[in-house]
Specification:
240 residues; two-stranded antiparallel sheet; 8 strands; globular
Length: 240
Amino acid sequence: MVLFDIDGTLIRTHGAGVRAFEQTAAKHFGLVDGIRKLQFAGRTDSSLIRELLTHHGVPVTPENAIRFHEYYLFLLDAYLEHSTGGPCPGVLKFLGDLQTLAHPPLIGLLTGNIRLGAEIKLRRFGLWGRFEMGAFGDDHEDRNELARIALARGRARLGGTLTGEEVLVIGDTPHDIQCGRAIGARVLAVGTGGASLEQLQVHEPDWMVADLEGFDVRELAGPLPPRPLNSQELRLAKQP
């Protein structure tokens, strides 16, 4: 099974999600400049909403969460209509190449986006239909728990015993690496989103690339590669 993060891994929306979140906080909860201290990269929507409301003394109730989601999704759809974003480099070919493997994997999502938010984003760029299942930010606030949910759903879909070592998690932040490790999965880190290669390397992913352009998916079926370069080696590698 191969599980993809969305923002910064599959697509770039040029901040549509953050703007929708900010405007929901301001227009519908009166929290002007309310997201200034929030760190979005690698987080779940549910944890961000809880942090935002708690910080401003707004009750964290199911009703407020539903209200936030409704306004956020409406604004997200509107902002994406005018977004100039799109798939990250190499994503479309990578997805196609996975299907050409002798034993094509189950392809799913492992994302902090709530499910409908994930669908709105991926439909905007023609990608939603490429994924068979997933775990989403409205399944759980904790990314590690989302990984366990995705593993359980993968097992149910495949009708057998799927081990962590048979799962690949692809993401662009340390949170993606950590949640992959929570289920014993292999991890492919990409430098197309929220973290630099140096920041990703600290967390020791199994593969680390600037983007998916030119990545040979057949490597995923073989033995693990050598460890990624450390920070000093990365600097040396960048020198002419």
